[in-house]
Amino acid sequence: MLTEFRNPILPGSHPDPSICRVGPDFYLVTSSFEWFPGLPVFHSRDLVHWRPLGHVLDRPEQLPLDGVRASGGLYAPTIRHHDGTYYVVCTLMYGTAETGNFIATATDPAGPWSAPHWLGEPSSFDPSLLFDDGRVWFHATRPADASGHTEVWLRELDLATLTLVGPEHVIWNGALRDATWAEGPHLYRIGESYHLLAAEGGTALDHAVSVARSADVTGPYEGNPRNPVLTHRHLGADHPIGSTGHADLIQTADGDWWAVLLAIRPGLNLGRETFLTPVGWADGWPVIPGVREAETRPALPEHRWPAESACDTFDEPGLRPCWNQLRTPRERFWDLTPGRLRLRLRPETLTERACPSLIARRQQHAHFAAYTALDFTPASGNECAGLVLLQNDAFQLRCEISLGTARLIRRAEGTDELLADRPIAGGRIRIGVEAHDQEYRFRLDGAEFGAPADGRVLGHEPAGSFTGAYLGMYASSNGEPSTTTADFAYFEYREL
Question: Active-site residue 126, yes or no?
């Protein structure tokens, strides 16, 4: 058996991980922001190999993402298990129909999950739960003033009615003087003490993890004099793993402690990914040595899951868990038959806050190749279909097939730039992209199309984004009504 594993354990845009253990099984959820289905759920038995189980919010009536801005939507979920029920608490930010904190429940982490039960508190975010001696404590972050300074507050949750009851307690406002964004709080009862783990310093280079403890769940909490207990801020912007923070602790059945957390591999378009690192204890405080690309494996039996084929031929009854749509699909715009994904052209486009005809997945590797085969006969020059890589509505790379023409378009800061075009004949056309770091080379029917495109347009920093790049298949009639469809015979994604 291998003695090491490679970080990240969930590559690509999987930020804000939260984890729980039920017997030998570990379950993990991450943020999903404006993407649907919401809140992916993963399953592992060795903390290293993970398989997707589904999503907490996979029905349109559960998730009102209509009109949500880029990097809005679902922030920082927490998953916990108690007495046969799984609980996920989360925040919907910048919603147009609903906003604030909610809780969803299930007896099976694979679902189905309940409709969200809204808890209110629209100014609060990053909620978590602590089950302790028959009581449940809801805790979250909220602004303390207008400067970006935040505080962690606590209140009891009545499980029978799923309402917050009793007095409110402010228990933490950051470890460092003038600290900003004390967020992502998680409480644990460890021995006779309550430990509060919280992120601090924002989600960029200064991200960090601090810890405090108390003899009473409502406080007062004393900070660890060695705070922060985890940060890579001192290693500089060129370190291969940066922005470490937003951690959640887990203990194995043998008593070993680990932390899942988010971090960024600078210079790539993968966003904030999920990493795993060991946790020790000294003087009653957690000690987290840092996050490494190669780390010693947990002392658990290795458990690999069967690998999915790199090529999706759309011969399953539904879409694979890797596929996503932008915002809530209020109408069905796609159909599956064996060997074909059909997208219906609709007026919505990739450049607006809408739900376009798009089926996309995360970019998960710095070096990858993706290919699809498109059968498409546009009825007018307004209609297009093709392959897209997008950060959000303002930053994209699009390889579009339109009426007799193929176009390669770079979109930055909301403005389109034509990089290449060429006439094409009708019939099936094979579209592909091969990426190496920030060089993206597009191909049509095996021939290179245009000069290599600069992939930095897909990075999270230029866009001010919380997500990594996504890629997939789309179709649009660009504001006009249409009855045209576009058929994709397969989609292949491979690490190179």
Answer: no
pLDDT tens-digit map of 226-258:
999 999 999 999 999 999 999 999 999 999 999
- Strands 357-362 and 395-402 turn out to be unpaired
Does residue 303 belong to any structural domain of this protein? no
- The boundaries of the domain holding residue 423 are 311-495
How many independent structural domains does the chain possess? 2
Q: Could you tell me what percent of the chain has a pLDDT over 70?
A: 100
CA distance 395 to 114: 35
Q: Tokens standing for 212?
A: 């405090």
Q: Which CB contacts under 8 angstroms, 24+ apart, belong to 154-158?
A: 154/187, 154/217, 154/218, 154/219, 157/103, 157/129
Mean per-residue pLDDT for 315-326? 95
CATH number assigned to the domain comprising residue 105: 2.115.10.20
Catalytic residue among 34, 183, 312, 348: 183
Catalytic-role residue among 16, 151, 156, 248: 16
pLDDT at residue 1, rounded to an integer? 59
- 34 is a catalytic site residue: no
What are phi and psi for residue 140, nearest 5 degrees? -160, 180
Query: Same structural domain for residues 428 and 474?
Result: yes
